[in-house]
TrEMBL record, chains A, B, C, D:
Similarity field: Belongs to the phosphofructokinase type A (PFKA) family. Mixed-substrate PFK group III subfamily.
Broad class of where this protein is predominantly found: cytoplasm
Protein name: ATP-dependent 6-phosphofructokinase
Statement: the UniProt record of this protein carries the keyword Transferase: yes
SUPFAM superfamilies for the chain: Phosphofructokinase
EC number: 2.7.1.11
């Protein structure tokens, strides 16, 4: 193994640079292997937009947010497909590719592997909704940022005797809402896996209010109240393909104020959850994933992705890894709901 | 001077508790003077909702966000007026009152003083738009929180080659935008004091893009582009009297994307700017203001507010202090604009 | 089950209050069970220093550092022993006890259980050196605080071309050094499980220096260089039973400066690692442990402690849990050492 | 004015990079003036170790700690002196020099100006002890970092009923101790400007203890108790010219424990106070100073340094600026001491 490629695809996620650094250092130091970086995900591979990644180019980047390689949502399979990727491999003399990305990227990696190309995946989603790994890097940073922001909202709620609503990320799964809500001591956590009626939410709010608390509601962007046709547009449905500002947080603000008579304010935390410095937890996890991805490549474990299981990093077949979203299980939701009172 | 009242009125602001603590400790230790706290601002004084504030009740509160006394927007002059306030003074045996609040509270304090009541004001606005004081407490915390959030947005912008727009607070003045924008290295800072056209904003954005940067725009909520009738509703104009989510940030997101062709994303930082722990700067400033307010009371300087001038805390006549908003002066804006390039 | 006791013993650790809150809320809401808190660990139980813990007493405490119950190092077995504890149970009408503490407390819990008393343990050590649980709460916060501090040291090292040494906690095991060192990108991580010579450390330092870097060394307090009789006193060995300031950090400062000729500075991070707000990760873990401890009590699982296994919280027999320190395994050290270059 | 030089000298200080960025951008954009950077302070000028500083080289650096130019303690006057500096000016075609540094650098700048060279100073000291400016950049960051660390120590003190001692920087003046101590709510603040006896310190400690508090003492490194020949070595006096670990914090730990019988722990915050990201306050102040330094050069105000006065940045003659240390005035100390109780 003499040369590997590496690319980062899909949404920004704290820790991506630590994966790159871990891979490049392990490659050079342990395996004597050089790295080429492709810019803006698969686009760089398809369009031969490539930069060498010697050791000094990854100095000190593990604490930097974002990705030094840039990213895009280009899908390699729909842009000329496997042949162009194969040509990219050949042109750059690659023995294999480390692809850091979400479900789309991992599915593409699987397809490429089935066509004989050598790819290792590194799962990346702040939403933590990928099966086969206990946690994805970036999730801890998103939860920490959301929790700090919600801590701030709480003091305003208490001073003004308001109900505060915080809308956090979570397109399919409520992991960020569950963890940030539990960490911040929310009086209601609303996630798509466990729909409840607005009446139930209002009841939780009034219960907290009745105990003299300023009610705090944490809601995942994809939550829909039972019996409501979504009259709001969740992330991604805007004319321009941009996040709607008038999502579920806004709906709750209006409805809860009407239903409870309490002054209610929503804040949409938005992009601050996915940018910025990773937590130490994510830096360690991401660094280990980067190292493990190169080890997997060196061991010829193509067609796997590296995953966290307990405290170990292990390669997992992409076949097994894909397919099912990891949703918040009922018992985890009920555990958190204990605290709603 | 044996007993003083204290109340906090208007919007939440980091540092309020440090003012309360500074006043109570200085009162008890230096002047042998006890404190009564009124709950939820003037409402507590009008409705006799009052709590004693012995020394131990203010333990460790200077780092806590919000206000332990609660707040409201009750205006004492429009709720039965001066006579009810006077009755409240008498009922509680007050020698004077420390009123912590914004322009409305300080104007009420002036009116009450003109009717013979003894009041000292402590200016409170995160917007920093009050004349007669170099800075108001809470402003530094708001700028720090906004800057950290904008730092996070920047990494997303750079990874995705997007234009990022951050909407910050500032109902009348652009101080938070000016400072947070300068601290975060924004490519355009938009404040109500200095209207520019959307074409100018787009030109700044394209200039940054042309230099290979991910354009970063920081906008105060009250900014209106030149030649635009505001088609958006700034803070406070909603049917429910709540902040609009679809304000200037949203407008810029749509317009800049159309005008520049760059993917553009807006984030409305909202309430996280006014909650949570104060910075050390604000804790020191607020503590000093609390001590100085009691000193002013002990010296019979009724009808003044305490203000920061350079590194000194001085009493300033409320007549002088009120009347003019402190806007961002032209030279400060031009100084920052140097960096837009 | 109508009434449980709860106590916190041993060193301060971020997340203790979240355990207390989780237990009290789960007890009251799910099991209809009241809580008594004993002050300063086992001392409160032996001396009947006890406070009721109704729901409102644990409001908002999960983000507060330290423990609202106080702590001490009192050992119940050496202070009159099992009989006094049994009397304490009877006097307070306890159905069982939740004991939050380190190895000493868990060993005491096991002994008490073997004598017929009903105790559930919650493991607490920032050192993360307890077997039978993937992570202990408090560890993530300690690593985060240490990492942020080391990030600060790095900039000084780079500006002055110095070698910076950071001494972190770790009495028996090098977990904090391993994780904080990996997160901060250290050029050498020194842990007691993997002794190396000073020559090796100096070689790593010179290697980093040779690549134009400011060398960064992270050392666990209990590390002893191979071939060195410890001429320094690790944590706890001072005349007063206090942490020595002149520990391994200081030794490295002197020796590395002499051996490499590079200006070298050591910082002993000390107590800042164990105080202050827990991270969101620790708040979630600690809350879940508190809930699970009460569930274990309700299910009569006396003599167990609650532990993290992957993403699950499970009860583990104290017999199994105690006995072996969880040291950093060789493969984890080698994984990190890849990055030393 | 076509070309300016810039250098950074003396100890690391958060905000230095923001000064560099502000100067380079203002130079290029406003004045059409290029910049040369000298590496490691005056050494780079004397030894012609120089790098061009085009605009893109200062991208995004204002939030980075340390200095991209490196620093040293080289004194230009004692290394061949004015003639070598003059030669450096000529060789690089400099119209003038921006020198960012502490008292030594500013004194050198004054001497160089008196010999006909064109220099503008930018004052830099985290100690805030320089006259003629209200605050120096870096000070706010140091106070914020120290305050956060002391907040952490407090929770340990409260949990263990200990007296906690935090030793902060301050070689001549107690500004960091004063501000961080006030922000953290210390029960005693000890600064060199206001010596007190150990008996007085112990009395403050016992007074806090008597009120049920965990005593918190913040001490500047240069504080000496009245009547004590310093048996400890303050910063800088070590054999190797390095900070002593066994300074005043250590002395207080031992003495207070003996005098009060309370378990006492000292933490020396050390270098973490001067590294890492600047606060927003310092980024704004430093950026403005950088811009103002170039303006001063463009206006031919050689021999001045730029200073903060109220909210304005003004040039001040170096003659006036130097000479007297800015110590904590008696009234500021007494104001803080009110809170000791």
């Amino acid at each position: 193994m003499r040369r590997l490629g590496i690319l980062t695809s899909g949404g920004d996620c704290p820790g991506v640079n630590a994966v790159i650094r871990g891979a490049v250092l392990a490659g050079e130091i342990v395996h004597g292997c050089g790295f080429m970086g492709f810019r803006d995900g698969w686009r760089g591979l398809l369009e031969q937009d490539v930069v060498p990644l010697p050791r000094h180019s990854v100095r000190g980047i593990s604490r930097r947010g974002g990705t030094i390689l840039g990213t895009s949502r280009t899908n390699p399979l729909s842009h000329g497909g496997v042949d162009r990727v194969r040509a990219g491999f050949r042109r750059n003399g690659l023995d294999g590719l480390i692809a850091i990305g979400g479900e789309g990227t991992l599915a593409a990696a699987r397809e490429l592997c089935s066509q004989g190309l050598q790819v290792i995946g590194v799962p990346k989603t702040i939403d933590n909704d990928l099966g086969a790994t206990d946690y994805t890097f970036g999730f801890d940073s998103a939860v920490q940022t959301a929790t700090e922001a919600i801590d701030r909202l709480r003091t305003t709620g208490e001073s003004h005797h308001r109900c505060m609503v915080a809308e956090v990320m979570g397109r399919n799964a409520g992991w960020i809402a569950l963890h940030a809500g539990m960490a911040a001591g929310a009086h209601a956590i609303l996630i798509p896996e466990h729909p409840v009626t607005l009446d139930q939410v209002a009841a939780w709010v009034m219960s907290a209010h009745g105990r003299g608390r300023a009610p705090l509601v944490v809601v995942a962007e994809a939550f829909t109240p039972t019996g409501q046709a979504a009259p709001y547009a969740p992330r991604g449905l805007d004319t321009f393909g941009r996040p709607r500002l008038g999502g579920i947080g806004r709906l709750l603000e209006e409805e809860l104020q009407l239903m409870t008579g309490l002054e209610t304010r929503a804040t949409v935390l938005g992009h601050i959850q996915r940018g910025g410095e990773p937590t130490a937890y994510d830096r360690v996890l991401a660094t280990r994933l980067g190292i493990a991805a190169v080890d997997a490549a060196a061991n010829g474990r193509w067609g796997t992705m590296v995953a966290l299981r307990g405290t170990d990093i292990v390669p997992v077949g992409l076949e097994e890894a894909l397919g099912t979203l990891k949703l918040v299980p009922e018992e985890r939701y009920l555990e958190a709901a204990v605290l709603f009172g």
